[in-house]
Amino acid sequence: MSTKMNPKMNPKKQIPSRRYTDEFKVEAVRLMDAVGVTQASRRLSTAQANLYKWRDKAQAGELSLGNANVVPLRSGPNDLAAENDRLRRELANTKLDLEIVKKAAAFFASQSR
Question: How far apart are CA 64 and CA 25, in angstroms?
């Protein structure tokens, strides 16, 4: 009897080890600062521990892109307020568009009968 397990029968899937470029790490740290660790981890399909480790390296100056050391971007309260205002306007426009589409759908549904 063979000691090898069939990969289809193995309930624990092994995650292959990945190598990330410095550019990816820098952008991941920027994303983490912008949207938070959990959201960045989900979007990038990487462990939160990696993000924390990369952020620490970037802050210590160990993570670099080319010759320049990289410092993660931080947005200030004014930037966040402006972004919130923009998102509120976009949400209001989207709600208006959705309302128009619903009324059009109801109109065309009543015309087809």
Answer: 9
